[in-house]
Design goal:
162 residues; mainly alpha; 2 domains
């Protein structure tokens, strides 16, 4: 689906510390093969202004209609990207449960075990309204009917990172 150039570029993007190298490669090889596209840089943490300036200089030569979407949790990075602050709000509690349950149970006809449902509600609270966390945890628990499996996920140390 991706061209050889796009695959190379995407591999380089994985390491944000290589922004200058990406720029050098991009100006040399990709520009001549560029088509209108959407470039998504997700969860960017590198706010080094001079390095990003080099990238921006290159990207302005992209095909007409091309766009760049950058997501970050850092206001410094958002400022570096010269973008508007578009803060997303967390999901409401009832929407959280619906999203989690959609991925955890996937069958509207089946009612979850009451104990699993209670643990699930606690897990939903720990996800703090974040859709990706809700989908991930729900998918992780899909087809797990044992209360002990649900309890293990709820008590996991993974929550210490949130």
């Amino acid at each position: 689906m991706f061209s050889r150039y796009q695959e190379q570029f995407l591999r380089l993007l994985q390491d944000q510390l290589m922004i200058v190298e990406i720029w050098r490669w991009f100006t040399k090889d990709w520009k001549k093969n560029w088509q209108a596209s959407l470039l998504v840089l997700d969860d960017v943490w590198n706010g080094n202004q001079p390095k990003w300036e080099e990238v921006w200089k290159t990207l302005v030569f992209g095909a007409q209609g091309s766009r760049i979407l950058v997501t970050t949790r850092s206001k410094e990075v958002a400022s570096t990207m010269r973008s508007e602050d578009q803060s997303l709000k967390q999901l409401q509690e009832d929407h959280c449960w619906k999203l989690f349950a959609k991925h955890a149970f996937r069958d509207d006809d089946t009612q979850p075990n009451q104990e699993c449902r209670e643990i699930g509600m606690k897990i939903v609270k720990k996800c703090k309204g974040l859709p990706l966390a809700l989908k991930t945890m729900g998918s992780l628990l899909y087809n797990k009917s044992s209360v002990s499996e649900w309890e293990t996920v709820f008590q996991s140390q993974i929550w210490e990172f949130s």
